[in-house]
Write a structure and sequence with these properties.
Length: 342
């Protein structure tokens, strides 16, 4: 039995005679500048809208992949009789976005370990998958899945299969969230709206160590007194480990005794964003993230040095990269050198 949390919003708009256009294998070779990729990741409404925000994606089509019967209807797919997966055909310009980036963005937005479920929707049609149409695509997908497994020491539940068929879904499913802005979506809206920004940094995020990933992406906390920069006080600048954007100066760093790097202020307030954090029962805190890459840095408290403004930016070393003064010019941070002499 499958559960579809979208039924109340989809069946009311579905025309009774909606026709599905069969397209077992779509070929974009008539446009030599584009290629097609086929992804499954839960409800195709949200996944399509997500990929539409990626720079370099030129078109999308939602449909049913790997069906056992030709030209299935939505009702047949939901019944489980077709074994089809709700999928999105992503047409893209490889000069603007790579297939690897598209695959990484899929793994970034879904739960790659969930079996036959994404969000509130359960059933075989909601399984996740990467369906390749060439040996080259298979190699790309296999590589990212192996890297994910190595990083998390777990086996992803993302199918890697040759695309057997893809049938366009009914017209009312196409661009559904554009037609119905308040419609159901299992993908958080902030991820949809920020996918273009995420696209710029996804490759760097993938290069992070397990600890760096846990801290920056999952808001974990590194061990106090046992991290890279707690006792680093040489002149230099601290930058976002993902984007490289300048965040803190060594002249604003002090030993707070908390076991993590502490700063009295950022270089520029606009580089950071503050968020209410209630993860510790009875101890509300203010979480600090970067405005650009939106990684988790740590928290800010009001128990800092009064003569420096009274704030303590308690940051994780794993979210930062320290650039010594003598390397700042060569690494592109020369304009900040005068600030170290104030």
């Amino acid at each position: 039995m499958t559960t579809d949390s979208r039924e109340t919003s989809s069946t009311t708009t579905a025309p009774s005679d909606a026709a599905t256009q069969a397209s077992p294998l779509h070929d974009s070779q008539n446009d030599s500048q584009t290629q097609d990729a086929y992804f499954a990741g839960g409800c195709f409404w949200g996944l399509e809208r997500y990929y539409q925000g990626v720079d370099g994606v030129t078109a999308t089509q939602v449909g049913y992949a790997q069906s056992k019967i030709p030209d299935p209807s939505y009702e047949q797919v939901c019944s489980g009789a077709t074994d089809a997966a709700e999928s999105v055909r992503v047409t893209f310009d490889p000069a603007r976005v790579t297939l690897r980036t598209l695959a990484l963005l899929l793994l970034d937005v879904i739960n790659p370990y969930s079996v036959n479920q994404q969000g509130n929707d359960t059933g075989r049609q909601y399984r996740s998958g990467m369906f390749y149409t060439s040996p080259e695509q298979k190699t790309v997908y296999d590589t990212v899945l192996r890297q994910l497994a190595a990083r998390d020491a777990r086996t992803p539940a993302v199918a890697l299969e040759k695309l057997r068929n893809f049938y366009n879904a009914e017209e009312y499913h196409q661009d559904y969230l554009d037609k119905n802005p308040g419609g159901y979506c299992h993908i958080p809206l902030d991820k949809i709206f920020n996918v273009g920004r995420r696209q710029r940094y996804i490759e760097r995020v993938w290069e992070l160590s397990p600890e760096e990933y846990a801290v920056t992406q999952e808001a974990a906390t590194e061990r106090p007194f046992d991290n890279a920069y707690d006792q680093t006080f040489e002149p230099g600048i601290y930058v976002d480990i993902v984007s490289g954007k300048p965040l803190f100066l060594s002249t604003d760093k002090y030993d707070s005794g908390c076991g993590w790097p502490a700063f009295s202020k950022p270089i520029n307030d606009s580089a950071l964003t503050n968020h209410r954090d209630t993860t510790l029962p009875g101890r509300p805190r203010v979480e600090v993230r970067t405005a650009d890459s939106q990684i988790h840095l740590g928290h800010v408290f009001d128990d800092g040095p009064q003569d420096c403004g009274g704030l303590r930016y308690c940051m994780n070393s794993a979210s930062l990269r320290f650039v010594p003064r003598e390397q700042m010019e060569s690494e592109g941070y020369g304009e900040y050198l005068p600030l170290l002499d104030k």
